[in-house]
Amino acid sequence: MSAPQVRHPVFARFFDRLSRLMERAMGDERDELLAGLHGRVLEIGAGNGMNFRHYPAEVTELVAIEPEPYMRGKAEDAARQAPMTVHVRDGVAAELPLDDASFDAAVACLVLCTVPDATAALSELRRVLKPGGELRFMEHVRSAQPGKARVQDWLDRSGLWPRVGGGCHCARDTITAITAAGFEIEQTHRFSLGPPWALTNPHVRGRATRHDWQR
Ligand SMILES: C[S@@+](CC[C@H](N)C(=O)[O-])C[C@H]1O[C@@H](n2cnc3c(N)ncnc32)[C@H](O)[C@@H]1O
Q: Which residues form the pocket of ligand 1, taking CB atoms under 6 Å from any ligand atom?
C-alpha cells in the first residue's frame, strides 16, 4: 500500500472536533451552499463528511474525495448514515481519478485554502464537470482590509499558518482563481464565521458554472 499523499494527524483530529462544535453556526451555511443540487455530485476535500447530511434529496450520488486517512475514516462513517449513495475515495484535488464531464455539480468547501495548488485543483474540477455544470464553493479568503491582508500574506509566506492549519492559507484570492480557471461566477455572498476580525474571515459562499465558449 502506498503512503498517503496528505497526512495531518493532529490537525485532522482538531478539525473533526471543531467542525462538530461549529455545526450549530455552520449548519445553515452548509444548507445554503448545497441547496438545489441534483444528480451526480463531486465533493473535494470532504473532510469528516460534515456536508453529507446537508445535501438535498435530489442528489442521487455523491463522490467524496478525501486524501487524509483519519478524515477519510470519519467520512466513511458519515457516508453510512447519509440519505444518498456516497462513495468516499482517496485522492487529491489536483489529480482527480475521475472521468471528464462526468458530474452535474462539484463542491469545494473550506478546501481551496488548503490544496497546494488551487489553480490545478480548479482545472480538474472544470474537467470533470459537464459543460454548464455548477461549482459550489464556500471558502475563507484574503481580506479586503489592507492591514489585515498584510498580516494574512505574511502568515502564509512565512509558512506559519500552513504549518498550524494542516496546509491552510489565509490569504488566497479564491474568487479570482475560480474565474481564471474558466468558470463564470453566478452568485457570491460574503459573511463572517465567528468574530469578523478572525484571520479566517471573510468567507465567501457562491455558485459558478463551467463555461466553454472562450476555450
Ligand atoms: C479544512 S478541511 C475541510 C473539510 C470539509 N470540506 C468541511 O467542509 O468540513 C480541508 C480538507 O481538505 C483536505 N485536503 C488537504 N489537501 C488536499 C488535497 N490536495 N486535495 C483534496 N483535499 C485535500 C484535508 O485533508 C481536509 O479534510
A: 6, 15, 19, 44-47, 50-51, 65-68, 71, 92-93, 109-111, 114-115, 167
Q: How far is the CA of 214 from the centre of ligand 1 (A)?
A: 31
Q: What is the pLDDT of residue 184?
A: 97
Q: DSSP secondary structure string, 98-125? A: S-TT-EEEEEEES-TTTSS-HHHHHHHH
The percent of residues in the chain predicted with pLDDT above 90, rounded, is 94
The closest-lying atom of ligand 1 relative to the alpha carbon of residue 50 is: 9
pLDDT at 5: 85
pLDDT(215) > 80? no
User: Structure pTM?
Assistant: 0.96
- Where helices occur in the chain by DSSP H, the ranges are 9-21, 23-34, 69-81, 118-128, 146-157, 160-164, 174-180
